[in-house]
Please model this.
Amino acid sequence: MTDKEILELYRDGQQQRAFNEIVKNYSERLYWHVRSLVCSHEDTDDLLQDIFVKVWTALPSFRGEAQFYTWLYRIATNVALNFLGKQKVRSALSFESLADNQVKKVEDDPWFNGDELELQLSKAIQKLPQKQKAVFCLRYYQELSYEEISEIMGSSVGALKASYHFAYEKIKKELKENFNDGL
Model:
């Protein structure tokens, strides 16, 4: 079912059916987007529930000024970044680094099934500042255009291109250091 059909269902009074279609169409995509940011299956599952509660609550106010999926991704990204912000405060209070905690989550993840390069890439991504991490994941993993990411992040295309470039360079440097073979 298309986003337009889902929104028509919602406006025609079939809110529960429309919401079920949203969950059906977007659960997996939003799961992997959030998972790329927070690294933990358990945290991602919890956040996904929060995201869909926020979607349900905010759906009556969706005006259609943005594309529906970018609106959903914006909610998901904000929830994930807020979670990471709280994790950063907790880490600071315990004198630990959020990046180190995130890297440890990647290393300890029983669900991770990639090769060594994927593991090192995931670890490098977790060391990025939050905004760069979000931009990189939306562009690299979700394959969204800069215009779509602009709708999600509320930043200019130029700023996003710069963020992606800086993230790319940091990841490239990290991978070169880990593999030392001129990637």
About this structure: The chain has one domain: 3-179.
